[in-house]
Amino acid sequence: MSPSSSTTGSPAPAACSPMPPRRHRVGLIDPRSQPGPLVRRLFAADWCACERIALDNLHDFGVLNRFDAIVLCDVVGKPSGGEDDGLQSAHRQLELLRKRQIGVVVLTHRPWRFAGFDAGSVCLNPDSSFDMLRGSVTALAHIRPLILQLDLQYSAMQRLGKNLARRFEATNRELQLASQLQRDF
Predict the structure, then answer these.
(1) CA–CA distance, 26 with 43 (Å, rounded to integer)
(2) CB 71 within 8 A of CB 40
(3) What angle in degrees, to the nearest 10, is found between the helix axes of 130-184 and 37-44?
(4) C-alpha to C-alpha distance for 71 and 105, rounded to whole angstroms
(5) Are 75 and 32 in contact (CB under 8 A)?
(6) Sheet holding 24-29: strands in order across?
């Protein structure tokens, strides 16, 4: 009897093949007309579906929600009052994406300008390797469902806490009324 057959004589089941990895949906915010080489490779990649977006026009959660991660290309603009216009625009965009719980890879030569943002953003040098960009986008895309689930659980816990506080207040009022009635009689 061969090692691949069972005692009944039937062949052993074929090994389960792993599911192919899901293509990540990546939004690209790049105000330049000619994207850099890293961004061009992103559009050609088979592991993601990349789409250029103009975030100033997309304040609808449903539109932004279709992306697993966003790549934001930092562009140095003209100075206006100490900060350049491109940086101010990038900060507004990052704040909107933070509220929507979408991870962002910022391609920039000046990462110190984006250091104040939370764990949902990663700064990479535009000259970084494509593997570094892929790893960052993949990591952000993988944690997004977890962050959304945690946010839902947090909201549910807040509602539960408010409901319990109302019930405790009502119980406290009833106990105070009962105490008052006992004193009166």
Answers:
(1) 9
(2) no
(3) 80
(4) 5
(5) yes
(6) 48-52, 24-29, 69-73, 103-107, 121-124
Q: What is the 8-class DSSP label of residue 25?
A: E
Q: Is the dihedral of CA 52, 55, 57, 61 positive or negative?
A: positive
Separation between Cα atoms, residue 120 and residue 98, nearest integer Å: 7
* Helical H segments across the chain, by residue range: 37-44, 61-64, 85-99, 130-184
Reading the block at residue 88, the tokens are: 């101010």
- Kindly report, residue by residue over 10-31, the tens digit of the pLDDT: 555 556 666 556 789 999 887 6
- Structure tokens that stand for 113 in this block: 């300008």
* 78-82, 98-102, 171-175: range with highest mean pLDDT: 171-175
* CA angle 49–51–56, rounded 5-degree value: 150
The residues near 125 (Cβ < 8 Å, ≥ 6 apart) are 107, 108, 109, 111
